[in-house]
Specification:
Blueprint lengths: L30 H4 L5 H16 L6 E11 L2 E12 L49 H11 L4 H13 L3 E4 L2 E4 L1 H13 L6 H15 L5 H23 L10 E5 L6 E7 L2 E5 L9 E3 L2 E6 L6 E6 L5 E5 L8 E2 L3 E5 L6 E5 L5 E4 L7 E3 L6
Antiparallel strand pairs: 1-2, 3-4, 5-6, 6-7, 7-8, 9-10, 10-11, 11-12, 13-14, 14-15, 15-16
């Protein structure tokens, strides 16, 4: 598995040399040698870094495509896929995926006229699926492909779109909110030249030229702000007095002071409920995120809460009279074995599970459950 000579890799076009790669300082120190000196998380992290780095200096994995026709009882079954001719670096490291993929098309090694035995017959019907939602990893990969941003700005970009609630996290997926869709449409309409993949990538290249001393920063900024200032003035004029109203902002709470239907507002301290009649009516209320599930202890409403570190957990609206609390979201489904409430367990394989000691019931979450 050792190549005849060391392997070298070219830097990507958008690589910033000031950001050094994370790699083991002593490759001879294997993860197993240091396992007893590390915590579980430290060991997993070191193993990932060491394995990926070492695999980068191993030989390539060789896979061969194959097509097979199997004759059985007058019928012809066809299979196409690949088999591993030489494992190479995959002997040590295989990259994980954020999204669950269909079963691998890897086939066992087959030879002409060899007898095969039927283990199982399955009837499967496949439908065209829409493209998967972006995850943080796939979004960064797309930004890299289009030349948008740099490694030092990817984290800030994701933090911005999540903290401003342009997207929300569902498991690992980034799902656009109504606010995000409205803002995107507004930006496309008012700033078509700027909300443009080619423009953004070109701007990144111009900034790189400035960094390398090939362009004067004053000229680059002047070229940009000339058109931008004009477009901004036009947008300000056209948007003067315009208020964007979102459907998801409306609540079923009626203002007891003026009778209007109250709406959800966001400040730098978080969400709150306010009267849309401001400034004539200044009535506000505390925002409570309801899950639509009843408390399994007292029958109150289960609401979304946050720790000081903004980690989400679930509690009862009747606190402190009721002390129900859970990291995992309770559902309206009941365990078929014991009748207790089922909880949602997130992760690569989301599932519903029963928390009652000794029950152990679990159920894989399907598309219908979601």
């Amino acid at each position: 598995h050792l190549p005849p000579k060391p392997r070298f890799f070219k830097s990507r076009n958008n690589a910033q040399d000031g950001h050094e790669a994370i790699r083991p300082s002593m490759p001879s120190l294997t993860p197993e040698q240091v396992k007893n000196s590390l915590t579980s998380d430290q060991y997993k992290l070191y193993k990932l870094i060491w394995s990926r780095f070492t695999a980068s200096q191993m030989t390539e994995c060789i896979q061969k495509t194959t097509q097979a026709e199997i004759q059985a009882n007058g019928y012809t079954f066809k299979a196409s896929g690949y088999y591993v001719d030489f494992p190479g670096f995959t002997k040590l490291y295989i990259e994980g995926k954020d999204e669950a993929e269909e079963k691998s098309s890897q086939l066992p090694e087959l030879k002409k006229d060899m007898p095969v035995r039927c283990k199982e017959l399955q009837k499967n019907q496949h439908f065209t699926q829409p493209p998967a939602r972006y995850t943080e990893a796939s979004l960064i990969k797309t930004l890299e492909e289009y030349g948008i941003g740099r490694p030092s700005t990817y984290a800030a970009t994701i933090t911005t779109i999540t903290s401003r609630e342009y997207v929300k996290r569902e498991a690992k997926s980034l799902v656009p909110t109504e606010l995000g869709e409205v803002i995107t449409q507004l930006m496309k309409k008012r700033f078509p030249n700027i909300v443009n993949v080619k423009f953004t990538a070109q701007m990144e290249e111009n900034l790189d030229e400035v960094e390398n001393g090939k362009e004067e920063w004053q000229e680059v900024l002047e070229d940009f702000y000339g058109d931008f200032e004009k477009t901004l003035k036009e947008a300000k004029t056209a948007m003067e007095g315009v208020k964007l109203k979102l459907k998801e902002d409306e609540t079923d709470i009626i203002c007891e002071k003026c009778g209007r239907r109250m709406v959800v507002k966001t400040s730098r301290y978080g969400k709150f409920i306010a009267c849309p009649g401001y400034p004539e009516c200044k009535n506000i209320k505390k925002y409570v995120g309801k899950t639509g599930v009843k408390c399994p202890k007292c029958g109150g409403d289960v609401i979304v809460k946050h720790t000081k570190n903004k980690r989400v957990f679930y509690g009862c609206s009747n606190y402190p009279e009721c002390d129900f609390v859970s990291w995992n979201e309770p559902t309206n489904e009941r365990c078929p074995n014991c009748g207790e409430v089922l909880y949602k367990k997130k992760g690569k394989k989301p599932a519903l599970y029963c928390a009652k000691e000794g029950c152990g019931y679990t159920k894989t979450i399907t598309t219908e459950d979601k």
